[in-house]
Every structure is written in structure tokens, then in C-alpha cells.
């Protein structure tokens, strides 16, 4: 009887063992990022990290009592690097700077799966990381309000952009994970069988490169344009209201003067 092969478990390359007391929290966090690059956040464990760093696992537990504490520390560092690398939204050129902000955000997460897993998929921020995130969002909303949006519309606009970016990135990340584990189609479109006889429009646009439910550049940019166009209309409507009020007030003042 043939025995089925057993899936290979994540392993860490063993380093030369360190001297006792020669490791610190920064060394541990650095090592955790190194190991996560090879085996992913899901497979990261304290014993594997100890082997990777060449220390006993108790040396790690001395600083981080459980894996969640270590992941929080990794998230703090990742979020600081992410925030500093993300361009500000400027009121004077709000549309292009917000577009650039969204593109850079998306590119940063797509280019760093560890960043995506820590901040977007894990979605557990320490108080320090959460405070840093609030400051960045406040700055963006402040700029949008200065550009002419009400505080509520500025909040909703930035929230929509953030949701659009995060949804696009997480969908792509899940797709990549499914592809690496042979779980089958990762996008809704890939599971569809499009018959030109019964779905001629779908067949036509699909042949032109359009994809349903895919987090590609075309879909991302289209959705981003829709959000920006809506915000621009809100700014135009807000700017038109004072002029409209002045128009309606003038005849009243004239009539009062005639009397």
C-alpha cells in the first residue's frame, strides 16, 4: 500500500547558538520579520523563531509572553514605516494628492505581504499603533475639509478611498494565498464559464481585458475615479450654495428699499 506524502512543515534555518543574554527585543523583532518573509505570518511560531535566532525559546518569552505580543510589536514597526512612506493629502491639489495617496498605499501593501497580513488581515493594532493611525487619518480629513468638503463628506470620502484600497489589496492577497495552495480559482471571474451565445456582453468586454471582481489596475482605477468624481461634485455643490443664497437675497433687499 502506497503511503501518501506528508506536507512539509515550515522550518527555520538553525543559526549558531547565541550566548545567554545576548539578544534584545529589536533583535527578536528583526528576526521575526526575516522568518516571516520565508514562512509567512500564519506559520510564525516562537520555537521556530528561537531556532532561527539561535536562542532558546525562553529568551524570546522573556520579552514577549505570547505570539500576539510579538505580532503587536511587529505591527507597530510596520505601521510606522508605512505611515512615513505614505504621501500626505494636500488641500490645494486634493484630487491628485488623494489619488497618489491611494496608489502609494496600495503599492506598499501589494509589495509587502507581511505588511498586508499584519495591518489589514490580522487587523489587531496596539494602542500605540492605533494612535499613529488616527493622526494620519485626521491630517487627510483636515486637508479634504480645507479643500471644500464638509467634515462629514471629508470623512466619508477618505473612508471610501481607504476601504477601496484595503479591499483591493486583501482580495489580491487572498488570491495569491489560494494560488500557492492549489485551492482553485481565486477570483469570481475565473470560476465563471462565459458562453458568447448566452452572455454576449460579458464575452465582449472580457475579451477586451475587463475582469469582474479582480483587484487589477483597471478595476482599481475605475473605482478610485468614481470616488474622486463624487467628492468633486460635492465640492462644486458646496461652492455654489453661497452664490445661490446671494442671488435670492438681492431681490428681497431691493424690494425692501423700494418700500
UniProtKB/TrEMBL annotation:
<dbReference type="InterPro" id="IPR001647">
    <property type="entry name" value="HTH_TetR"/>
</dbReference>
<dbReference type="GO" id="GO:0000976">
    <property type="term" value="F:transcription cis-regulatory region binding"/>
</dbReference>
<keyword id="KW-0805">Transcription regulation</keyword>
<keyword id="KW-0804">Transcription</keyword>
<dbReference type="GO" id="GO:0003700">
    <property type="term" value="F:DNA-binding transcription factor activity"/>
</dbReference>
<dbReference type="InterPro" id="IPR023772">
    <property type="entry name" value="DNA-bd_HTH_TetR-type_CS"/>
</dbReference>
<feature type="DNA-binding region" description="H-T-H motif">
    <location>
        <begin position="45"/>
        <end position="64"/>
    </location>
</feature>
<feature type="region of interest" description="Disordered">
    <location>
        <begin position="238"/>
        <end position="259"/>
    </location>
</feature>
<dbReference type="Pfam" id="PF00440">
    <property type="entry name" value="TetR_N"/>
</dbReference>
<feature type="compositionally biased region" description="Basic residues">
    <location>
        <begin position="243"/>
        <end position="259"/>
    </location>
</feature>
<feature type="compositionally biased region" description="Basic and acidic residues">
    <location>
        <begin position="11"/>
        <end position="21"/>
    </location>
</feature>
<dbReference type="GO" id="GO:0045892">
    <property type="term" value="P:negative regulation of DNA-templated transcription"/>
</dbReference>
<dbReference type="InterPro" id="IPR050109">
    <property type="entry name" value="HTH-type_TetR-like_transc_reg"/>
</dbReference>
<dbReference type="InterPro" id="IPR009057">
    <property type="entry name" value="Homeodomain-like_sf"/>
</dbReference>
<dbReference type="InterPro" id="IPR004111">
    <property type="entry name" value="Repressor_TetR_C"/>
</dbReference>
<dbReference type="InterPro" id="IPR036271">
    <property type="entry name" value="Tet_transcr_reg_TetR-rel_C_sf"/>
</dbReference>
<keyword id="KW-0238">DNA-binding</keyword>
<dbReference type="Pfam" id="PF02909">
    <property type="entry name" value="TetR_C_1"/>
</dbReference>
<feature type="domain" description="HTH tetR-type">
    <location>
        <begin position="22"/>
        <end position="82"/>
    </location>
</feature>
<protein>
    <submittedName>
        <fullName>TetR family transcriptional regulator</fullName>
    </submittedName>
</protein>
<feature type="region of interest" description="Disordered">
    <location>
        <begin position="1"/>
        <end position="23"/>
    </location>
</feature>
Amino acid at each position: 500500500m502506497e503511503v501518501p506524502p506528508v506536507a512539509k512543515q515550515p522550518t527555520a534555518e538553525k543559526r549558531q547558538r547565541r550566548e545567554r543574554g545576548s539578544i534584545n527585543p529589536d533583535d527578536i523583532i528583526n528576526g521575526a520579520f526575516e522568518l516571516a518573509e520565508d514562512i509567512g505570518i500564519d506559520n510564525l511560531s516562537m520555537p521556530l523563531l528561537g531556532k532561527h535566532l539561535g536562542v532558546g525559546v525562553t529568551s524570546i518569552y522573556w520579552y514577549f509572553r505570547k505570539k500576539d505580543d510579538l505580532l503587536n510589536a511587529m505591527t507597530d514597526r510596520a505601521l510606522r514605516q508605512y505611515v512615513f512612506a505614505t504621501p500626505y493629502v494636500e488641500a490645494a491639489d486634493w484630487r491628485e494628492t488623494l489619488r497618489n495617496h491611494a496608489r502609494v498605499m496600495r503599492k506598499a501593501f501589494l509589495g509587502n505581504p507581511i505588511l498586508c497580513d499584519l495591518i489589514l488581515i490580522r487587523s489587531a493594532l496596539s494602542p500605540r499603533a492605533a494612535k499613529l493611525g488616527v493622526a494620519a487619518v485626521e491630517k487627510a480629513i483636515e486637508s479634504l475639509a480645507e479643500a471644500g468638503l464638509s467634515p462629514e463628506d471629508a470623512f466619508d470620502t477618505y473612508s471610501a478611498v481607504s476601504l477601496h484600497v484595503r479591499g483591493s489589496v486583501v482580495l489580491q492577497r487572498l488570491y495569491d494565498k489560494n494560488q500557492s495552495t492549489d485551492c482553485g480559482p481565486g477570483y469570481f471571474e475565473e470560476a465563471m464559464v462565459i458562453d458568447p451565445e448566452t452572455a454576449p456582453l460579458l464575452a465582449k468586454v472580457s475579451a477586451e481585458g475587463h475582469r469582474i471582481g479582480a483587484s487589477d489596475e483597471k478595476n482599481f482605477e475605475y473605482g478610485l475615479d468614481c470616488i474622486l468624481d463624487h467628492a468633486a461634485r460635492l465640492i462644486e455643490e458646496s461652492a455654489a450654495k453661497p452664490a445661490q443664497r446671494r442671488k435670492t437675497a438681492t431681490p428681497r433687499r431691493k424690494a425692501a428699499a423700494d418700500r
